[in-house]
């Protein structure tokens, strides 16, 4: 899960609200993709000045109170599964964020050597989650409209175009697996510049999630990181022991 900015064309009296941190007008789009670079959820239309975390909170509010927001498609929660979100989003049940302050190594760098549990977790987490950044990269390469400039039209029309492009993106992914754009971004180690939403820890009103649920979710992440680190150490020890056996053979 992540947010991306799509250029927007709005009346003069609305430009301030749609002006993002780069000084241009855009709509902030929240999207979820699967590991095959297909979009499974799109929430478009927020003003460009809105922080990713605020869009996320609004989306969750609509999901948690969907009877009052029937026009918003709900996120689907499956037991044992969770959405990967970055540090800009709230860590709570159903959403897994990285540890704040933990370093992230590049893909293949050191293979976890010298990393503590949190650092190793963040590195592997980043390797998994960059699929959403690669998906945005493909989407904008496929449809020049999404890179601007955008001709003036009603905002609802601009929102519909974004959603239609995401649907066409999925269609191309399923019917044209050898598409040049997908082939370019299919490599997991490709470096794609993420679109930060500004201050990663904004002062916004948190969702009403019981503290004990958040504590349990944080404890689950800690345990996951510890098990991951222990497994990495065991593999390194086994590999090192095997090499010693080979080289010490009479």
TrEMBL record:
Its main location: nucleus. InterPro entries: HARBI1-like, HARBI1_dom. It comes from Coffea arabica. It comes from the Eukaryota. GO terms for molecular function: hydrolase activity; metal ion binding; nuclease activity. The keyword Hydrolase applies. Its cofactor is a divalent metal cation. Belongs to the HARBI1 family. Pfam families: DDE_Tnp_4 (PF13359). Keywords: Hydrolase, Metal-binding, Nuclease, Nucleus. This is Protein ALP1-like. It is found in: Nucleus. One of its GO terms (cellular component) is nucleus. Residues 1-170 form the DDE Tnp4 domain.
